[in-house]
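Quick one, tokens below:
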């Protein structure tokens, strides 16, 4: 079992556009959960379930460095407070006892 956490703050001016965009992602990608901070509006965490380390590396590359679709990366750069350098991603695996 593994999970990916993605954390960032969305600028208030882009909140509605961001939420519409992410609803589409959630419909397409059944393993994505989107959470917003209750004490810090605009702070979001994506939780991706059952993501291999290889998938994580691909997701991170696409999100942080772009793909063939440069407009996708430009959206994130504009939406996130501080730009893409303020988007943080981590991959975790379940700890099992030996």
């Amino acid at each position: 079992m593994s999970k990916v956490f993605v954390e960032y703050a969305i600028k208030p001016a882009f909140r509605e556009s961001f939420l519409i965009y992410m609803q589409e992602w959630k419909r397409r990608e059944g393993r994505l959960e989107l959470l917003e901070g209750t004490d810090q509006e605009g702070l979001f965490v994506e939780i991706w379930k059952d993501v291999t380390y290889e998938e994580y590396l691909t997701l991170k590359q696409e999100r942080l460095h772009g793909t063939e679709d440069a407009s996708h990366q430009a959206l994130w750069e504009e939406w996130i407070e501080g730009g893409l350098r303020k988007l943080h991603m981590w991959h975790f695996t379940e700890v099992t006892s030996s």
